[in-house]
Amino acid sequence: MISAEEDFDRTWPFPARYTEKAGFRQHYVDEGPREAAETLVLLHGEPTWGYLWRHLIGPLSRTHRVVVPDHMGFGKSATPADSSYLAGEHIDNLEMLLTDVLDLDRITLVLHDWGGPIGTGFALRHPGRIARVFATNTVLPLGLPGYAELMAANLADSAWFRWARAAHADGSLEEVLGNAGSTITHLMLALQTVTRPEIVTPTWIRAYAAHFTSRAECRGVLRFPQQLVAPNEETTAPPDPAAVAELRAKPAMLAEGMCDTALLPRYVIPAFRAAFPEAPIVELAGAGHFTPEDAPEPLLALLELFLHAH
Question: Is residue 258 classed exposed, middle or buried when 0-12, 13-18 and 19+ CB atoms within 10 A define those classes?
Fold first, then answer.
């Protein structure tokens, strides 16, 4: 867990806030006017934390309340020893933060990577609290026909998941991700793709590696890929069709980094289009998996346009 005071050479100027409502010390950022009519909730994925959104938080918080949680096992949140780190548990944690602690309404979900399934899980439980959905290099599992086939094809085709499958098979997955403090930025660059190598400074490396100080602190970063390449003991009921229909009626948008080698655009774009047939899709030609790193200015402009248009 990264200390509350750490600002990574002033690149992370946001005060740390914490809740233990979900049974562990969960960190989140809460910026902007509390009286704002709407709130943006920015959700990170694997293997990042709220730092991913640092270029967007300041500009967005001038006019909106902006909440940025760190999932359990990432960033400034704790890594409890007795948790499963399965997707459903992350959804439970998010639900307690957004409803029990903050009681947010009129939420615009801004979703990246595993933030998509986690945010979608929350939205299906509380569709009435959601105003809009803005996705970037992620997937939104709504139980629709064809989705499982697209995800299976991505799992077979993606550089990240081909490596994860092979590493799981030969027993090296836990060794590599269990030492994420040393390996994680290489995996981000090589298997998920960062297209702007000039941003990879010592501070950047330290920010993304800092949580993973021991094997015990790597439970979260290991468990996400394990859920897809190893047997998964988590079973989930099909989503409520009424909740799916209500969510699909919301304004939505996808901004897709087209150089992503983890969640491949040729599968992600059709999956999004099937869920939201009328929603705009913008292709970011020069961006990889981590669009808030590769294309923060275009991503911010698209998000602000989306907010104004709806």
Answer: middle
Q: Which CATH architecture fits 17-309?
A: 3-Layer(aba) Sandwich (3.40)
**Would you kindly state where each structural domain of the chain is located, as residue ranges?**
17-309
What would the pLDDT profile of 92-112 be if each residue is shown by its tens digit?
Answer: 999 999 999 999 999 999 999
Q: Is 104 helix (H, G, I), strand (E, B) or coil?
A: coil
Q: CA-to-CA distance for 83 and 65, rounded, in angstroms?
A: 30
SS (H, E, C) 179-211: CHHHHHHHHHHHHHHCCCHHHCCHHHHHHHHCC
What is the Cα–Cα distance from 135 to 138, expressed in whole angstroms? Answer: 6
In DSSP notation, 126-185 reads -GGGEEEEEEEEE------TTHHHHHHHHHHH-HHHHHHHHHHHHT-HHHHHTTHHHHHH
Pairing status of strand 107-113 against strand 39-43: parallel
Task: State pTM to two decimals.
Answer: 0.95
Q: Which of 113, 115, 127, 17 lies closest to 67, judged by CA?
A: 17
Residues 6+ apart with CB under 8 A from 84: 223, 234
Pairing state between β 281-284 and 130-138: unpaired
